UniProtKB/TrEMBL annotation:
Protein's organism: Alloacidobacterium dinghuense
Family annotation (InterPro entries): STAS_dom, STAS_dom_sf
CDD domains: STAS_anti-anti-sigma_factors (cd07043)
Protein name: STAS domain-containing protein
Pfam families noted in UniProt: STAS
Coiled coil residues, start to end: none
Domain STAS: start-end pairs: 9-115
GO MF term list: anti-sigma factor antagonist activity
């Protein structure tokens, strides 16, 4: 059990020209956010669009939400678009409750090819 709780988040980054897609898996919770934040933050100066695909994310806590907000702010500061794809029900509810749903650029999930 300790191994699973230590590595509850995994992600891969795919680059296609000026766009980067970050595919997240697992849980974005306290103790896992900094690695994702640093990896995506390093992409921002090199890209025009960062898409975070949350299809395989099962849970986001307040630290995870904070990391997404920090990335959004950093992206805007650098003139980079930061978009979320495949918001799950739990994250969508959290974003609604915190009045952040309209802040994040969202992609329509139909007809988007991110591979």
């Amino acid at each position: 059990m300790p191994e699973e709780s230590q590595k509850v988040l995994a992600f891969e980054i795919e680059r296609d020209g000026d766009t980067a897609v970050v595919k997240c898996h697992g849980r974005l919770v306290a103790g896992t956010t900094e690695e994702l934040y640093e990896a995506v933050k390093d992409l921002l100066p090199q890209t025009k669009v960062v898409i975070v695909d949350l299809a395989e994310l099962s849970y986001v806590d307040s630290m995870g939400l904070g990391a997404l907000v920090r990335l959004h702010v950093s992206a805007r500061r650098l003139g980079c678009e930061f978009k979320l794809l495949h918001l799950g029900k739990q994250l969508r509810n959290v974003l609604k409750m915190t009045n952040l749903l309209s802040v994040f650029g969202q992609l329509e999930e139909h007809g988007i090819n991110i591979h």
